[in-house]
Specification:
Blueprint lengths: L1 H12 L8 H9 L1 E4 L8 E4 L23 H42 L8 H9 L2 H15 L6 H4 L4 H18 L6 H8 L10 H12 L2 H10 L5 H16 L8 H25 L8 H10 L1
Antiparallel strand pairs: 1-2
Helix pairs in contact: 3-4, 3-5, 3-7, 7-9, 9-12, 10-12, 11-12
Pfam families: Translin
Family: Belongs to the translin family.
Keywords: Cytoplasm, DNA-binding, Nucleus, RNA-binding
């Protein structure tokens, strides 16, 4: 009997480890009942469910505040919502025009690819130039959209940047095929109908487009030599040599433009190999020796 009371005392003492829980201990002690089943030699103690500490009821659910948000906070985020919706709508309109520029650029590119098949050059250029007017109209629409948000040019610039670089590369290639020199920055702006003061051609986009244009020249040289034009490698080599020397004046960072300039150097090396191969075989004219010396001196 004494051991039974000792066990009951130890069980109740577990609830009184915290000195502040005297009330819970009292409630626990009151919940202990002595029962004696039939045939049992000694009573045993049973603790009912009401022995749980009363403080547990207060931890069952967190308290929620029903106070409305502060007027200043609500007004600020309402302004954010309006600005984000307007910016998203403007960006969607810009991307729509950029997709149309890309579509017209693909048609121009497919027309220019015919130059590698020894098609008549005037025919190829006329077919490619037919897309310039349409691309110019698209840039005019793009400038009109950006006029609605003055000073936000570079915020949305990435939405049409790659398309502009491709357009510049194709225009520069066409210009070289027609005239034989590099398309200048202001000339590219004029062809696209851009205004430098409001909506102009970014310098890096122009330079990257020029590097893209140089990627077409090694293939063009090989195809022209195959067609019997042995003077083409010399012309392309001189052009790329001058272009490479001009790029070396720039202090380029380790970014995408620097990588594209490295590709220009590889294009120059490929054209050099074709030209030297043609020259070793004696297929070049004797009047090219002076220009060869000048070209080699610039390298």
């Amino acid at each position: 009997m004494k051991s039974a009371f000792r066990n009951a005392y130890c069980a109740s003492s577990r609830f009184s480890l915290n000195p502040s829980s005297v009330g819970s201990v009292l409630s626990t002690a009151s919940a202990i009942t002595i029962t004696r089943p039939l045939g049992s030699p000694a009573p045993y103690f049973a603790i009912t469910a009401s022995a749980r500490p009363r403080s547990a009821a207060f931890c069952s659910a967190p308290m929620a505040s029903s106070d409305p948000p502060a007027p200043q906070l609500e007004k600020q985020f309402e302004g954010f919502r309006v600005q984000l919706e307007e910016s998203g709508s403007l960006r969607d309109r810009i991307r729509t025009v950029a997709m149309e520029i890309e579509s017209a650029t693909r048609l121009m590119h497919s027309s220019l690819l015919l130059v590698h098949q020894s098609r008549p050059l005037p025919e190829v250029l006329d077919k490619a130039k037919a897309q310039i007017g349409e691309i110019k109209d698209h840039y005019s629409r793009l400038a009109k959209i950006l006029s609605e948000c003055p000073g936000q040019y570079y915020r949305y610039h990435g939405d049409w940047r790659s398309e502009t670089q491709t357009v510049v590369s194709l225009l520069a290639f066409m210009h070289w095929l027609e005239i034989g020199n590099l398309l200048m920055h202001d000339e590219a702006e004029e062809k696209l109908g851009l205004n430098n003061s409001e909506f102009g051609l970014d310098i890096e986009d122009y330079l990257i487009g020029v590097c893209f244009m140089s990627n077409e020249l090694p293939r063009y040289v090989v195809n022209q030599v195959t067609a019997g034009d042995y003077d083409c490698p010399r012309k392309v080599l001189k052009f790329l040599t001058d272009l490479n020397a001009s790029f070396r004046m720039l202090n380029l960072r380790n970014d995408f433009l620097r990588k594209k300039f490295d590709s220009l150097k590889y294009d120059l090396r490929k054209v050099e190999e074709v030209y030297y191969d043609v020259k070793i075989r004696g297929l070049t004219s004797s009047g090219d020796s002076k220009e060869d010396q000048v070209s080699q001196g610039q390298q």
